[in-house]
Design brief:
Number of domains: 2
Low-confidence stretches: none
Shape: elongated
CATH superfamily of the largest domain: Probable inorganic polyphosphate/atp-NAD kinase, domain 2
CATH architecture of the largest domain: Sandwich
Order of helices and strands: EHEHEHEEEEEEEHEEEEEEEH
Mean pLDDT: 93
Distance between the termini: 39 Å
Radius of gyration: 19 Å
Largest sheet: 6 strands, antiparallel
Structural class: alpha+beta
Number of strands: 17
Strand content: 35-45%
CATH class of the largest domain: Mainly Beta
CATH topology of the largest domain: Tumour Suppressor Smad4
Strand order of the largest sheet: 6-5-16-13-8-9
Helix content: 10-25%
Length: 254
C-alpha cells in the first residue's frame, strides 16, 4: 500500500504530518494508492478539487475545528485503518453560468452551488427546474443547490434539509427568502437541472459560487449533478459518513 499525505498550513496539521512521516514511507499523490488529508473540512474540499483527477481514495484525519468529512486523528496502524474503512462515492455538481460581460464560465462543486446578492438590495431570481418555471420571482438574499454531502454545510445553516448519502436527492434552498414568504425550498431528484435567472442584473447584481470559487455579475446559471465524475472518501467503520449525516438530524444540543 502506497500512501501520500498532504496537510493544511496550520501548525497542528504540520506537527501531525511530521509525526506520520517519521513512521511511514510516504510517496507523492500521483504515486499513491491512497491520499491521507490532514486538516479540516475546508482543506478536504480544496484537496478533492486539486487531486480528483487522480481517481485515488481520500482518507481525512481532522486537524481543524469540526471535521465533518474527516476521521479522528491517530498515527497508530494507519494502514490497517485505511484497509478497514467504508468507501463513500460523491458525485459533484457542475454549473454553467452566463455573465453580464457575455462570458460563459463553468464550475464544479462537491458541497453546493450558490447565488448571492452583491448589494444592499435583495436579489430577484426566477427559478426553473427541468426548463419549467417554478418560481417567477424569488425575492431573497440568494439561493443554492446542495449535494447530500454538502447538505450539512451552508445549506443546513440556511434551514435546508439534511440529505442522506445515496438518497439520489438534491436540496434546492432559498437564502433569506422575502417573497414568496412561506417557500422553504424543495427536494429534487438528482437528475434534475436547476436554472437561476437574475431578473434585474443591472440594478440588483448577484454572484455565483461553486464551493470556494466565485464569479460576479451573473445573468443565469444552470446546475446539475455530474454522474460521470466521482471521488471516493474513506471513513472509519465506527463513524461513517452515513452515521454522521443521520446523527446531525438529532443534534439538538449544538
Amino acid at each position: 500500500m502506497k500512501i501520500a499525505c498532504i496537510h493544511s498550513d496550520t501548525q497542528t496539521a504540520f506537527d501531525r504530518f511530521s509525526l506520520l512521516r517519521k513512521n511511514q514511507r510516504l510517496v507523492t499523490p500521483e504515486e499513491a494508492d491512497y491520499i491521507v488529508v490532514l486538516g479540516g473540512d475546508g482543506f478536504m474540499l480544496h484537496s478533492l478539487h486539486e487531486y480528483r483527477h487522480l481517481c485515488k481514495p481520500f482518507y481525512g484525519m481532522n486537524c481543524g475545528t469540526y471535521g465533518f468529512l474527516m476521521n479522528d486523528f491517530s498515527d497508530d496502524d494507519i494502514r490497517e485503518r485505511i484497509q478497514s474503512t467504508k468507501k463513500e462515492i460523491l458525485h459533484p455538481l457542475t454549473m454553467d453560468a452566463r455573465l453580464i460581460s457575455g462570458e460563459n464560465v463553468t464550475g464544479v462543486a462537491f458541497n453546493e452551488v450558490s447565488l448571492f446578492r452583491r448589494t444592499r438590495m435583495t436579489a430577484n431570481i426566477a427559478v426553473f427546474v427541468n426548463d419549467v418555471e417554478r418560481i417567477p420571482r424569488l425575492v431573497c438574499d440568494g439561493a443554492l443547490v446542495a449535494t447530500p454531502a454538502g447538505s450539512t454545510a451552508y445549506n443546513f445553516s440556511a434551514h435546508g434539509p439534511i440529505i442522506p448519502i445515496g438518497s439520489n436527492v438534491l436540496a434546492l434552498t432559498p437564502v433569506s427568502a422575502f417573497r414568496p414568504r412561506r417557500w422553504n425550498g424543495a427536494l429534487l431528484p438528482h437528475t434534475a437541472i436547476v436554472r437561476f435567472e437574475n431578473l434585474d442584473p443591472d440594478k440588483r447584481p448577484v454572484y455565483v459560487s461553486a464551493d470556494f470559487k466565485e464569479w460576479p455579475d451573473v445573468i443565469s446559471v444552470d446546475i446539475k449533478e455530474d454522474r460521470k465524475r466521482e471521488v471516493y472518501l474513506l471513513f472509519d467503520q465506527d463513524h461513517t459518513l452515513d452515521d454522521r449525516i443521520f446523527n446531525e438530524q438529532f443534534a439538538v444540543g449544538d
